[in-house]
Amino acid sequence: MGHENFFNSGIWIIPLVMMLLCFLFFRFFASKRNFFGHNGNKSATEESPLDIIKKRYARGEISRSEFEQMQKNI
To answer: What pTM was computed for the model?
Structure first.
């Protein structure tokens, strides 16, 4: 009863299948949900261009006329 019985018996497939299942879980399920502090949807965390110019106007970085012009361009 040595290591040759391990490989000949086919029991080696169990750890291989377990590693594959773990990989698939983290690849497809954990990355899509909020397990690691993000939700997998970048657009939900990104600001729209209008939000950005509103914040710049509120901070005084741009004037009212620049704000209105940028709003028209969007």
So the answer is: 0.40
Q: Which two tokens stand for residue 58?
A: 């509120």
pLDDT tens digits for range 25-67: 888 776 666 555 555 555 556 788 999 999 999 999 999 999 9
Tokens read off for 25 = 């879980």
CB 24 within 8 A of CB 15: no
Q: What is the DSSP string of 21-40?
A: HHHHIIIIIITTTTTTS--S
CA–CA gap between residue 52 and residue 46 (Å, rounded): 10
Give 5's Cβ-side CA count (13 Å radius): 2
